[in-house]
Automatic annotation (TrEMBL):
InterPro entries, sorted: Bifunctiontional_GlmU_bac-type, GlmU-like, Trimer_LpxA-like_sf
Domain of life: Bacteria
Keyword vocabulary terms for this entry: Acyltransferase, Transferase
Transferase as UniProt keyword: yes
Listed GO MF terms: acyltransferase activity; nucleotidyltransferase activity
Keyword Cell inner membrane appears in the UniProt entry: no
Protein name: UDP-N-acetylglucosamine diphosphorylase/glucosamine-1-phosphate N-acetyltransferase
Length: 432
């Protein structure tokens, strides 16, 4: 069985800058990728392959002659990862029939153009290039997709209860539940894990009814774990230094480090090779990112291989306690996200020593921001400078600097990643 998860232009824009150089499936769901979460939730369905239909420069299914075959599934990538069978009417059981489709209404309107395609099992094969054109290049991707599927006479059923990721803050909203699922994913691998006696033998203290799951290869000493609000997971070869105060839920990825005296208020999620320090609340950090020094950061989603200098951080509440507005690339305007939100940050961006981000910041990828003057709320990708005095960060220089930072993580950019960055830079029209 093959499942093709399709992105739309509006979904990618709504999640920007997190998805500027990657698909939504590469983002973290509780500590594992969204793609891994889909795979884990469908492991009982036999052999299942997953592919993503997205923009050409990111696609893993490129090629004009490629098709989705009869009996395969087309699923909206903005759906929360679930067992595919649970999406459809229970009376269909595990035998989801050919031509079964699931939709949901947008804005409570009756017009079919206002209905969103969630999932469909194809009766006949479809060219991937045609699907990509419909969902990426058309102004109304759902209307285009309905038109493309019309000859198959799909039997549409309206979904009653489905959860989707519409905006970046949804990733934070679901983080606690996602951590629980990600821990189950790790437990299914079989460990080995430290038992409670071994954990406490290293001077650690545990309080609460949820579990503390620590990989046997991790180093954890003289920390306090409070699981009253959710479980805690410490990954392979991770380090939790002395004096850390941790309130779950937490997923600390492989080879990641909590420096001495770190204070975490969950849910907090990290990928692998992340370094955290200071005071952190309700945040997601993707692979290789450092926020290793004193300073506060809350209600934020940070991309991969970012760096926060000593004393840097950001506000997540306005001094007026008013509603926070964050720039939304799909609207090309600011959108209200509630009373608490810190920052969105794209991959490979660095914040200098002492630099503070304002409430509701949206900082693009490959930025280098420094100095004591607070930068604007919205900083587009490939900018360099201090405060509002920002200038173009040329791609050749940006790549050299990224490579310098990646050496700290014993990593480097591969050819495809450099091609993606060059493509994004060229789209801005700023190459000299």
């Amino acid at each position: 069985m093959a499942i093709y998860l399709f992105e739309t232009r509006s979904l990618r824009d709504r999640l920007s800058p997190l998805t500027e150089n990657k698909t939504i499936l590469e983002l973290l769901a509780g500590g594992i990728s969204i793609l891994d979460a889909w795979t884990f939730n469908n492991q009982d369905q036999g052999t299942v392959t997953f592919s993503v239909i997205t923009e050409d420069f990111l696609s893993d299914v490129s090629g004009e002659d490629r098709c989705i075959e009869r009996g395969d599934y087309l699923v909206f990538a903005g759906l929360r990862p679930v067992a595919l069978n649970t999406l459809f009417d229970a009376k269909q059981g595990s035998g989801i029939s050919l031509g079964a489709g699931l939709i949901t209404r947008q804005n409570d309107k009756e017009d079919q153009a206002e209905q969103q395609v969630l999932a469909v099992r194809l009766k006949e094969k479809l060219a991937i290039s045609d699907i990509r054109n419909a969902v990426i290049n058309q102004a109304d991707p759902n209307k285009a997709l309905f038109t493309l599927l019309a000859p198959q006479k799909i039997r549409w059923t309206e979904a009653r209860e489905v959860r989707q990721v519409f905006h970046p803050e949804d990733l934070l909203h679901f983080a606690g539940a996602d951590i629980r699922s990600a821990i189950d994913f790790q437990l299914a691998k079989g460990g080995p894990f430290l038992d409670a006696k071994a954990i406490e033998a290293s001077g650690n203290k545990i309080r609460g009814s949820h579990e503390v799951v620590i990989e046997q290869s991790a180093e954890v000493h003289f920390a306090i774990f409070n699981t009253e609000n959710g479980p805690i997971y410490i990954g392979k070869n991770a380090r939790v230094m002395e004096g850390c105060l941790i309130r779950g839920p937490l997923f600390l990825g492989d080879n990641s480090t909590l420096k001495m005296g770190t204070k975490l208020y969950g849910p907090v999620v990290t990928g692998s090779d992340v370094v955290l320090g200071g005071e952190i609340k309700n945040c997601i950090f993707h692979k290789g990112t450092n926020k290793g020094h004193d300073g506060y950061l809350g209600d934020s989603i940070i991309g991969a291989f970012c760096n926060f200098g000593a004393g840097s951080g950001g506000s997540n509440v306005k001094n007026t306690a008013g509603m926070v507005r964050v720039y939304d690339a799909a609207l090309q305007d600011y959108r209200s996200v509630g009373q608490k939100f810190g920052a969105l940050m794209g991959d490979y961006t660095r914040i200098g020593v002492g630099t503070q981000l304002t409430t509701g910041s949206n900082i693009g990828l490959c930025c280098n921001i420094f100095g004591l003057e607070m930068p604007p709320r919205h900083v587009r990708s490939f900018l360099w400078g201090t405060g509002h005095n920002l200038t173009d960060y040329q791609i050749e220089k940006a790549v050299v600097h990224i490579e310098n930072w990646l050496r700290f993580k014993l990593s480097s950019l591969d050819k495809r990643e450099i091609q993606i960055l060059n493509h994004i830079f060229d789209q801005t029209g700023r190459r000299r």
